[in-house]
Specification:
The chain is an alpha+beta fold. The protein has 5 helices and 24 strands. A 5-stranded mixed β-sheet has the order 1-3-8-5-6. It has a 4-stranded antiparallel β-sheet with strand order 2-9-4-7, with helices on one face. A hairpin with a 3-residue loop joins strand 16 and strand 17. Helix 3 runs antiparallel to helix 4 and helix 4 runs antiparallel to helix 5. The radius of gyration is 29 Å and the shape is globular. The N and C termini lie far apart (93 Å). The structure holds 2-acetamido-2-deoxy-beta-D-glucopyranose (NAG) (5 copies). The site of one 2-acetamido-2-deoxy-beta-D-glucopyranose has 3 residues, from loops.
């Protein structure tokens, strides 16, 4: 063998060794996948592709991780290194990678890197919020934001078909976003708002808390996932997030559980009042059930309600719905929907407690029986008091069909806006007047919370019936 050849071939071998060593550390990130790493700094190779949405997420608290992104040029030199800006522990950038690129990581801790060839990064904080229904001392009902709206067909004259008493739940979505609920103790300490961190820290992973998820068409906004949570601790602040595929984050919202003595059970999944997801002054549900549903509510309570609904629809149909217009915006279907919300809110009373952040936020002395409602007011701490009234067991109920209830409780009055929305949506011949004595004479409202006391829209003390911090001021229905 010619000794002259030794040198180049040895050189070649060395280069190959060096290349394969590089090949081992330079892990190639898969496209359209989330990769999780429990440490290490990379570099991680991005395969060449047009338009990659690269997203990163820190999965550890206080990790001070930084992610540097470089584009590879054809010369093989890395240039234009930029740091991916992180907000609440996650960040995303979209760009063209004709020759690929690399990600290097500074700091320690667990993290995720994801490459997506759709325009949508895997890691995102989404603007919609989960919805808090209500809680008891150890349970809560929460909803995802609406994710699927059934196609709505406006009924037409002469065959103007309105919803029956039980609102059908049509067009059930065939695919549901992969949502998981994450509950964590409410603390002041900052932590990354990332799916991987929240999923690991969630109390649902480790404790006695259990969650039952189902689908429910709560209102016209569309289908939501409903989460019934059990095994919570009384009088406790919880922070709730919703995770989609463990990478997209909705929230946080905050809610408190009620005190240990809170007497009222939860009610939800009521076909004739689909918006109901709150506590009511009723004895414990039959058959050791966790909550009441439309099927287990006492018929002495629900039969009159259904009868009102039927009779109202018959009366409404005496109008030439779909042929004659009583409003450029509203139809008989809108009227029926708003009547239903109002009827449910006034006939299925909501039992509540002041929120944990505002323990003085209720009215100690009921207003005179002739008063049409409770005006929004502030307490000495300048906090707005909820439309909460104490009810003693001997107090005659506002709804005569409500079975007697032994424990004292506080009732959260319906927001006057629930009545006004019905008034606006319905034809004048129905003679709707708010406040009104149509249902059992003494229905009373929370007034001045959402709209001003004189009806100026959004000019009320809170501008809303409830907020993301667990305050509930009046019962929107
Ligand atoms: C009226 O509409 C309903 C539902 O769309 C349909 O089932 C029914 O057959 C129609 N009746 C007439 C008389 O067209
Ligand atoms: C969830 O469902 C399981 C099984 O059906 C049941 O044992 C549990 O009590 C339910 N939890 C709640 C909060 O309803
Ligand atoms: C939903 O997401 C979780 C967490 O990412 C995962 O474990 C589970 O397999 C997913 N379920 C489906 C049906 O994709
Ligand atoms: C509904 O109408 C029927 C028939 O007119 C009547 O018997 C019933 O009492 C009405 N229901 C209510 C709740 O007023
Ligand atoms: C719950 O949070 C509120 C407001 O953030 C606070 O005022 C209250 O003390 C907390 N209550 C408990 C029991 O931690």
């Amino acid at each position: 063998m010619n000794p002259m050849h030794l040198l180049p071939s040895a050189f070649l071998w060395l280069v190959l060794t060096a290349l394969s060593a590089v090949g081992q550390t330079r892990l190639e990130l898969p496209l359209n996948a989330v990769s999780q790493f429990s440490g290490g700094t990379g570099p991680f190779a991005i395969p060449p592709a047009p338009q990659i949405a690269i997203s990163v997420a820190s999965c550890s608290q206080n990790s001070a991780l930084r992610f540097m992104l470089s584009l590879s040029a054809s010369a093989g030199i890395d240039f234009s290194t930029v740091e991916i800006p992180l907000v609440d522990g996650q960040g995303a950038m979209v760009g063209d990678f004709p020759e690929g690129g690399t990600v290097t990581v500074e700091g320690t801790g667990t993290y995720e890197i994801a490459l997506s060839t759709s325009q949508q990064p895997f890691h995102e904080i989404l603007p919609n919020l989960p919805l808090f229904g209500d809680s008891t001392s150890n349970q809560a009902i929460l909803f995802s934001p609406p994710f699927f709206q059934p196609s709505q067909q406006q009924p037409t004259y002469p065959n103007y078909t309105m919803n029956p008493v039980d609102v059908p739940q049509p067009d059930r979505p065939t695919t549901t976003p992969n949502y998981t609920l994450a509950l964590i103790a409410t603390t002041q300490n900052p932590y990354p708002r990332t799916g991987c961190f929240l999923a690991r820290e969630s109390q649902l992973q480790s404790s006695n808390i259990n969650v039952n998820a189902s689908l429910w068409l709560k209102d016209e906004q569309g289908w939501r996932s409903q989460f019934l949570v059990g095994g919570l601790t009384p009088s406790t602040n919880y922070t709730a997030y919703l995770l989609q595929d463990n990478t997209k984050v909705f929230g946080p919202i905050y809610f408190g559980t009620k005190s240990p003595a809170f007497p009222c059970p939860l009610v939800s999944n009521v076909a004739f009042c689909p918006g109901v997801a709150y506590a009511m002054p009723l004895d414990p549900p039959p058959n050791n059930a966790e909550i009441y549903t439309g099927d287990t509510l006492p018929t002495t309570l629900t039969d009159p309600l259904k009868s009102y609904m039927t009779n109202f629809t018959v009366t409404l149909n005496s109008f030439a719905c779909g042929r004659d217009m009583y409003s450029p915006l509203m139809t008989c279907a809108d009227c029926q929907r708003e009547y239903r919300k109002w009827l449910c809110a006034v006939s299925l009373p909501r039992c509540s407690e002041p929120s944990l952040s505002n323990p003085d936020g209720f009215t100690r002395f009921p207003p005179a029986p002739t008063a049409t409602g409770l005006s929004a007011m502030k307490n000495e701490q300048q906090q707005v008091m909820s439309a909460l009234l104490p009810v003693q067991s001997q107090t005659p109920s506002r709804n005569a069909f409500l079975p007697p209830f032994q424990d004292p409780y506080q009732v959260l009055l319906p927001c006057i806006e629930t009545c006004n929305a019905m008034d606006r949506a319905c034809p004048a011949f129905l003679g709707i007047k708010c406040p009104t004595a149509q249902f059992n004479g003494a229905a009373s409202y929370g007034i001045g919370y959402i709209d001003g006391k004189d009806g100026d829209q959004g000019e009320g003390l809170t501008g809303t019936a409830h907020d993301r911090y667990g305050n509930v001021w009046c019962h929107l229905g």
